[in-house]
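ok new one. same drill as before - structure tokens go in, u give me an amino acid for every spot. 341 of them this time. try not to just spam alanines like last time pls lmao
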């Protein structure tokens, strides 16, 4: 199982942008030295939920600051962009990283972000399908045309072309049976998890995934990844405080996903909801937090219920300071990672 790390680049206390980006680069460099395979970068807009709006751009910079680390997007929100530009940016990243790019695509889920680009969230599925068609045609390196509801392209050839053939590995965030089937049929890898998704829901995802793969019988079995908030410590009190930090991420994620977000002067507000999980419930069912032995047990449980080939660690949680994040990463590398290699 491959193990990577993920950067959302959030700041509940609205720290300066330079500080947040410096932290992200330092954590990616630490990930390489500690033996993580990937650094994945999210895309978000217009709030302190995530300062990173151009993940491929930062991934290119991180690639120049590292030598072995694979750099990826998790995800580029495809319906927010012209697909030809996406194809060009992906190819540029792959070239400048010397073939170390992994590309995650997603449809997006935040009305808040779409509205500020003058777009609607509802047509995103149809726009997504056309955009993916165009991106995949672009990666073939030959002239093509396209006529759809959203895009009408005369003959077009895209330069540059990526190093990896026929293109970098593509991952898609998918949870519904429809999205999983469409992803598997295209031959893409599947990524799921995140805040607000308890382990039982991961189990349901795993069952759907197995059923779809049996039905579709793709030429190559897709890689399957799960992303989780991760914090490793020797102290139970420290673990519980980290889980409370993760509550900020969960509250803001769910509010943006379900349309009751509050953003005040750019700061994302962690809106409480009725019947929130307790700290014990968060640790047991939603997060991967605790002592090294506890974290190993939690990851193995996810392995068993989902059948993952990739586990993605989101170490930078809430407003956690940098030294604490780095200590957690180091402890994970030293005492957790060997159980999976």
């Amino acid at each position: 199982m491959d193990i990577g790390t993920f950067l959302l680049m959030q700041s509940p206390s609205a720290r300066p942008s330079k500080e947040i980006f410096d932290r992200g680069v330092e954590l990616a460099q630490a990930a390489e030295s500690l033996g993580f395979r990937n650094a994945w970068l999210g895309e978000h807009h217009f709030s302190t939920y995530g300062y990173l709006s151009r993940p491929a751009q930062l991934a290119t910079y991180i690639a120049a600051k590292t030598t072995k680390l694979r750099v990826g997007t998790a995800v580029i929100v495809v319906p927010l962009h012209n697909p030809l530009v996406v194809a060009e940016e992906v190819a540029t990243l792959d070239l400048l990283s010397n073939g170390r790019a992994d590309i995650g695509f997603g449809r997006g889920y935040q009305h808040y972000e779409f509205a500020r680009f003058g777009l609607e969230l509802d047509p995103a599925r149809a726009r997504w399908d056309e955009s993916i068609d165009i991106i995949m045609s672009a990666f073939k390196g030959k002239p093509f045309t396209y006529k759809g509801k959203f895009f009408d392209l005369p003959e077009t050839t895209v330069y540059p072309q990526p190093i990896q053939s026929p293109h970098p590995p593509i991952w898609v965030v998918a949870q519904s049976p429809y999205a999983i089937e469409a992803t598997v049929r295209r031959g893409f890898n599947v990524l799921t998890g995140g805040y607000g998704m308890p382990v039982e829901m991961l189990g349901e995802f795993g069952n759907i995934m197995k059923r779809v793969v049996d039905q579709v019988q793709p030429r190559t079995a897709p890689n399957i990844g799960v992303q989780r908030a991760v914090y490793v410590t020797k102290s139970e009190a420290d673990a519980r405080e980290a889980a409370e930090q993760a509550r900020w991420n969960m509250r803001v994620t769910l509010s943006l996903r379900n349309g009751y977000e509050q953003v005040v002067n750019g700061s994302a507000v962690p809106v409480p909801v009725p019947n929130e999980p307790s700290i014990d419930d968060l640790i047991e069912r939603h997060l991967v937090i605790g002592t090294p032995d506890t974290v190993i047990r939690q990851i193995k449980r996810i392995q068993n219920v989902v059948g993952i080939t990739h586990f993605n660690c989101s170490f930078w949680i809430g407003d956690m300071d940098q030294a604490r994040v780095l200590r957690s990463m180091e402890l994970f590398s030293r005492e957790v990672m060997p159980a999976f290699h």
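The chain has a mean pLDDT of 96. and btw Residues 45 and 113 are 6 Å apart (CA to CA).
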